[in-house]
Amino acid sequence: MKLSIGWKSAILVFIIIVLDQILKIWIKTNMHLGENFTVFEDWFLIYFVENPGMAFGWKFGGTTGKLFLSLFRLLCIGLFIWVLRNLIKEKAAQSFILCISLILAGAIGNMIDSAFYGLIFDTGMTYNAEAGRYVEYFGVSTFSSDGYAPFLHGCVVDMFHFPIIKGFYPDWFPIMGGKRFVFFGPIFNIADAAVTTGIFAILIFHWNRLKQISDS
Q: Is 171 marked active-site?
């Protein structure tokens, strides 16, 4: 039986979300915050961090910023569902539809963390108003009905770290001189990778289609 592009899109989104959540839950319930282990030599690590902000560890304000970001994610998810539905109706190129599906899947994957992890786990990074930052916690998290944060205030679990090149900026380098340099520094998850892959694939292979949508 030949699957329609709608079913292919749905299956792709479902697989990414399931894989993303299985790995995140395993990491959170088996590793301490900051714990890491090497997968391959010294450039592919599993490194458990929690991210209260955007993708790749970027942060966005305190609790107000966190709530705004979660609501923004919800709006983006709704927008991408609407765009995906219209593209399927218009019988757009399958590769373009699958790229949008990747972005949608990644957005949903991280939204699940933000919306529900604070409700279902006993520990997680929480915002300390006096310190003006999110504070870490100790121990391995377990499922709990008490939770550690309200709805939409949970932290996203990240784990992939690829410090491919490590060294120090030369002393003459402006501002960063003498400081440690790591490429690639950000720590991310499957959802982040799905969003990034979808965006880059669109920019590389479907730029003309993107311009058509923006002009319409």
A: no
Q: How many domains does the chain have?
A: 1
The pLDDT score that the predictor gives to residue 197 is 97
Give the β-pairing of 187-188 and 126-128.
unpaired
Exposed, middle or buried, 192 (CB in 10 Å: 0-12/13-18/19+)? buried
What pLDDT digit, counting tens, does each position of 137-182 carry? 999 999 999 999 999 999 999 999 998 777 777 878 787 777 877 7
Quick check: bond before 188 cis, omega within 30?
Answer: no
Query: Could you confirm whether 42 is annotated as catalytic?
Result: no
Tens of pLDDT, residue by residue over 41-67, are 888 999 999 998 754 445 555 677 788
- For residue 77, CA distances in Å to 10, 11, 83, 107, 151 come to 14, 17, 10, 6, 17
**What is this structure's pTM?**
0.87
Mean pLDDT of 11-29: 98
Q: Of 113, 122, 192, 215, which is the active-site residue?
A: 192
Residue 27: which domain range?
A: 5-215
Q: What is the DSSP string of 93-160?
A: -HHHHHHHHHHHHHHHHHHHIIIIIHHHBS---EEETTTTEEE---S---B-SS-SS-TT-PPEEEEE
Set 20, 158, 171, 215: catalytic member: 158
